[in-house]
Amino acid sequence: MGFLGQLWTLVAAAALAVAAPARPMPRAVSSAVLGELTLFAEYAAASYCTNNINSTGNAVACSGDYCPLVQPDLFSSTDFGDVAGFFAVDPTNKLLVLSFRGSRTISTWIANLDFGATDASSLCDGCKAHSGFLKSWESVSDELTSQIASAKSTYPSYTLVLTGHSFGAAVAALGATALRNAGYDLDLYTYGQPRVGSTALAEYMTNQGVWRVTHTMDLVPRLPPASWGFSHASPEYWITSGNDVTVTTGDITEIVGVGSTAGNAGASGTSVEAHNWYIVHIDGCQ
């Protein structure tokens, strides 16, 4: 399981509280948007493949054909420690992609469960963030910022993109906020992202821009519970098709509203299995 699995199910069972659904503001998702969501879902999936984590200067590839779009002409992937993933240069699409892996080690599981809200004034005034996720970003921020600065110097016209699934999505979300504050122009794509902070932080991230993707009744985006003071940025791109089903433009609903209780948060029931399928089998390399 890419993130909290059955342990999170037990933690959440007594804590989840869903308010009356806010009115969703659905918007059409174009084929171009679906193409972008697919590409970066595959980049997120590639972070689970150990061959990409443990190599430098090699092509990014996935066993089991989990990321066919990202294999051609891709190079320069680097490992950045227990908060794992890779930083890749994609000359085909003119991208610099920083992809964070979901939970796989004891250290990242500990970070998942360190869900106290901590001061995040380093990101925005009056903001609080999930303590474990913020510590995880801070543990790699200096190294990654240095790599990004070097890559942008070499490829100034390339678009910087941060992505990740589950725990990786949370780290990507906070990292993108910090990097934007430092002056970097970037895009953020998250898949199955848990809530990462307070309403003030969610509003700040919304103003910066985010592509936040959820899937049916996936449990993880509902955690930590809103009743504990955590919120989500807007918009949400909610995939409504089932597991192992090819996603079409008609299967994705864009829902606008910080902390919305529509979409994934308003769906009846919960599912751990839905956390695995985000356009592709996103943690298939596990």
Automatic annotation (TrEMBL):
What residues does the Mono-/di-acylglycerol lipase N-terminal domain cover? Answer: 12-73
* One BP annotation, GO: lipid catabolic process
Q: Which CDD domains match?
A: Lipase_3 (cd00519)
Q: Which residues form the Fungal lipase-type domain?
A: 97-226
Listed GO MF terms: hydrolase activity
Q: Secretion signal: which residues? A: 1-19
Q: Taxonomically, which superkingdom?
A: Eukaryota
Keywords linked to the UniProt accession: Hydrolase, Signal
Q: Name one Pfam family in it.
A: Lipase_3
* PANTHER family tied to this protein: FUNGAL LIPASE-LIKE DOMAIN-CONTAINING PROTEIN-RELATED, TRIACYLGLYCEROL LIPASE, PUTATIVE (AFU_ORTHOLOGUE AFUA_6G06510)-RELATED
What is the recorded name of this protein?
Lipase
Q: What taxonomic classification does the UniProt entry list for its organism? A: Eukaryota, Fungi, Dikarya, Ascomycota, Pezizomycotina
